[in-house]
Amino acid sequence: MNVRTVEGLGEIHPGESLGAVLSQEAEIAEDDVVCVASTIVSKAENRFIDLESVTAGERAQAIADRLATIADEPKDPRFAQVVLDESSELLTTAPFLLTRTQFGHVTVNAGIDRSNVPNHDLLLLPDDPMASARRLADALNAPVIITDTCGRPFRHGQRGVAIGWAGLPASRDWRGETDRNGHELEVTVESIVDELAATANLLSGEGDGGTPVVIIESFEFGDHDGSNELFRDSESDLVGQALSQWEYQP
Amino acid sequence: MNVRTVEGLGEIHPGESLGAVLSQEAEIAEDDVVCVASTIVSKAENRFIDLESVTAGERAQAIADRLATIADEPKDPRFAQVVLDESSELLTTAPFLLTRTQFGHVTVNAGIDRSNVPNHDLLLLPDDPMASARRLADALNAPVIITDTCGRPFRHGQRGVAIGWAGLPASRDWRGETDRNGHELEVTVESIVDELAATANLLSGEGDGGTPVVIIESFEFGDHDGSNELFRDSESDLVGQALSQWEYQP
Predict the structure, then answer these.
(1) Out of A115, A179, A227, whose CB is closest to B185?
(2) A29 in contact with B at a CB cutoff of 8 Å?
(3) How far, in Å, are A67, A86, B198 from residue A59 at the CA level?
(4) CATH 3.30.1330.100: does it fit domain B1-47+127-231?
(5) For residue B4, what is the nearest residue in chain A, using CA coordinates?
(6) Distance (Å, whole) CA A104 – CA A126
(7) Residue in B205, B222, B240 nearest the CB of A154
(8) Which of B149, B147, B205 is nearest to A222 (CA)?
(9) Which of A31, A229, B68, B173 could form a disulfide with B225, with the two C-beta atoms 3.0–4.6 Å apart?
(10) What is the CATH number of domain A1-47+126-233?
């Protein structure tokens, strides 16, 4: 398996066709997996927001007030309002806003970006990353993964994850397969889109040296069943439930 | 970056020197990252357990009884006892045993394996994966990551993670670095050992076709600070705290 960056992509602007830009800048074979940072998808889809266009409601005001007290610094209730608008569920409101986005991804502040946002205050995640991935995969005639970078429970640090994908399944499904001794395997589903997103993130970097498109060549899915489930729903998400019932005590 | 498996490794036996086996079977350059599945490290370190050698205490009996009721099938209290012995903290006891291992990794059943365990009932994770990684890195004169495969909150499926590493830092530390517009980055720490472990898992597979050693060539850490923190401790682990206070209701 080979992993390489696409160099020479300039700043992406609203309305630009990422498919056209990538077709021009990158040699892509039909079994290459094209990993695209959500940032540039959001830019092409004009997911910028300026805070002056936002009016905070009561709930956003209350959340911001509490976060301000905890952090001992001002917090903009309009930012909390944008997070609420992008979320289907709040898992925690303190000491940070951990939410489930409308499309099912659990992340802090609904994944809204305040870095790398030229001329605007905020950049939202794509509205429907599965649809974004589908459009790009069709344009490029290759599998596509839209990636985000976020933290996780139990471990420090962030890593790349998939938020949308097309042209490949989310997971290898090992159910029913056996080990060398004929015992059924305990690992049942391997989330390959997340592992590919993590791989891409090793090369894509952040900040002013970042390369938002990474191409993974010669990845072999293998002779397994595939599954397309990635995000747990609220009912099957025990950790989400535990968090929803928990109250932060400073 | 290139990723390849090491083929031709046979079954690893207790007392075998993994360093010697790998030196013989693989060409390893000093900047290759050698990712080794914990399974074969555990086998070399004789981390097998047979249930007949275990006596379950009261707590293990109570946990197994409750899990048996929930699953409506028998659960061996001796298995629960082994999980307790390997754990420093129990995050949940139902509907499954989610624990923090003695060395800090949070996973179901303390990561104890019941697949791929020839002639024994169970295979424990290495006792001190950081020390195992150090020994292997010294023997191979290359960076080493010991990997595990486990599930995670919020998302279906398992993915590769690091449980021990040597010869490279756990993370890239972006603190203080800026985006193209001079704003400080929001992503501050990127867990590269987990991303490398996820990459390796794409090729290593499970079961009878598995290849437990994967070599990552030409990975560039880049010009960043490094950090060696990976496992959150109980005090800073808000999700762990929420889970500890939560009670499963079937």
Answers:
(1) A115
(2) no
(3) 12, 14, 39
(4) yes
(5) A1
(6) 12
(7) B240
(8) B205
(9) B173
(10) 3.30.1330.100
Tell me which CATH homologous superfamily contains domain A49-125.
CofE-like domain (3.90.1660.10)
Q: Is A202 on the interface with B (CB under 8 A)?
A: yes
- Taken as a whole, chain B contains a residue count of 250
Crossing angle for the helix pair A77-86 and A58-71, to the nearest 10 degrees: 120
B13 touches chain A (CB under 8 A): no
> Mean pLDDT in each 10-residue stretch from start to end of chain B (250 residues)?
93 94 93 96 96 98 96 95 97 95 97 86 97 97 97 95 98 80 75 98 77 96 91 90 89
Q: Where are the domains of chain B?
A: 1-47+127-231, 48-124
The CATH class of B48-124 is alpha beta
Q: What is the pTM of this model?
A: 0.96
What tens digit of pLDDT does each residue of A86-99 get? 999 999 999 999 99
Here the tokens at position B183 are: 């704003």
Instruction: Choose among A100, A180, A196: nearest Cβ to B208.
Output: A180
- B95 touches A at CB < 8 Å: yes
Chain B residues with CB inside 8 Å of A114's CB? 183, 186
Nearest CA in chain B to A235: B154
